[in-house]
Amino acid sequence: xxxxxxxxxxxxxxxxxxxxxxxxxxxxxxxxxxxxxxxxxxxxxxxxxxxxxxxxxxxxxxxxxxxxxxxxxxxxxxxxxxxxxxxxxxxxxxxxxxxxxxxxxxxxxxxxxxxxxxxxxxxxxxxxxxxxxxxxxxxxxxxxxxxxxxxxxxxxxxxxxxxxxxxxxxxxxxxxxxxxxxxxxxxxxxxxxxxxxxxxxxxxxxxxxxxxxxxxxxxxxxxxxxxxxxxxxxxxxxxxxxxxxxxxxxxxxxxxxxxxxxxxxxxxxxxxxxxxxxxxxxxxxxxxxxxxxxxxxxxxxxxxxxxxxxxxxxxxxxxxxxxxxxxxxxxxxxxxxxxxxxxxxxxxxxxxxxxxxxxxxxxxxxxxxxxxxxxxxxxxxxxxxxxxxxxxxxxxxxxxxxxxxxxxxxxxxxxxxxxxxxxxxxxxxxxxxxxxxxxxxxxxxxxxxxxxxxxxxxxxxxxxxxxxxxxxxxxxxxxxxxxxxxxxxxxxxxxxxxxxxxxxxxxxxxxxxxxxxxxxxxxxxxxxxxxxxxxxxxxxxxxxxxxxxxxxxxxxx
Length: 557
Description:
Elements: H1 3-50, H2 53-59, H3 64-82, E1 86-91, E2 96-98, H4 113-118, E3 123-129, E4 132-142, E5 148-157, H5 158-197, H6 203-219, E6 223-228, E7 233-236, H7 238-243, H8 265-271, E8 290-297, E9 300-310, E10 316-325, H9 326-365, H10 369-392, H11 397-412, E11 416-422, H12 434-454, E12 461-468, E13 472-479, H13 486-489, H14 508-518, E14 522-527, E15 533-540, E16 553-556
Parallel strand pairs: 11-12, 14-16
Antiparallel strand pairs: 1-2, 1-5, 3-4, 4-5, 6-7, 6-10, 8-9, 9-10, 12-13, 13-15, 14-15
């Protein structure tokens, strides 16, 4: 059954039950009120007759014929005006002296309550008499000395009372029918409006969409956070909690973003925007959108994009923002750059060796055998020099290839690159990442060669040392360039800090520091005697603190 049909049936049943209960309550109140009103009317008529002087005088007569004649003159107009179904008057001996049925006149009244009436009590009762069920009231008649000389009984038949109750009940039934029809029409209107508000979706579909949304938000790599106009977080995935500086397992749903500790003020200002202008037709203007804004959160560069949320009338209800860790993007870019450099080295070597093969082929064809032998000997000597390096770095061939490529790159720039490889590199350590180590070595060598190239010396040299000890792996890169200036010394590892004017620089050393800290290592920077600088990276093979938040660091002299 469709949700719209269920809603109509539910509302109609609710209206029917409510009107039914109200009808029963109304019938009960009407019945009680009619019974009370009829009883009070009967008692009023009985009291009126009991204090009537003619009735009292008649009951004091000893002659029965005169007594009944005088009572008849009083009773008939009272019965006609009051609408009572019967009036009975009895003397002190409880003998009926007047009754609506002439055959009952002169017969005794048999009711245990009559004695109490003669004793001064008045009663309103429901009982069944000779005329049928009725509501009757009884009271005593007193002489001038206050002695009971008879009683008056006034009654209304239950048939008349039931007829009045049925009249009210029929009117109420018509009211129930009208209320039910209005309820059905109202339920139809409500169901249509609800369905339109739900975009025609059934509750099962809405539940499935909610589950899919939760799964999508949890699975995407970006942080997603939604904040209403009061600054309360209405949606946030674990990535968002991590990127705003909180542990990923922290539940921040319903929290006020401004009250969370550690969240930068600039991020709060971006997400908790003060939208005071309502846009009824045009919607939010472009100034309320933010695209790819970079901010620093917990020493990370986070890229924020913000979009306002608006209702159908165009009123701003809050914001939704996506958070991306630019550090991770830079990691990917750096890795792609390294692969590209590695491929470029291979392409260059392939092209170079193809040219050398052509050269050897040409020398042989010209029968210049001595020159060909000398050239082959020279190439073999270079291969012999490079082969131990590749063999020493056998656990990670990327570093070996990287070093060979950097040697060729240094030769092209007129720089002499010295390498010193020590150790078996066979120790297995859970903290060591060879890809991180290759990135560290590549960035340090690039910076060293750039520092030498920017200096005015003619004999530029770079020294590279990779050593494994029993405790750590040490990467050391030194150069004889111009060294590190004082203005860049303090922000050497700050992301984006660079001596180059072009954009896109200043991230290499920041990545070196981050990779080093991830492996629990440290960096030291020294001034090299004779000019230049020395970068020494220390990567421990056995980590004393294996917690996720253990940090390395760097020092400079």
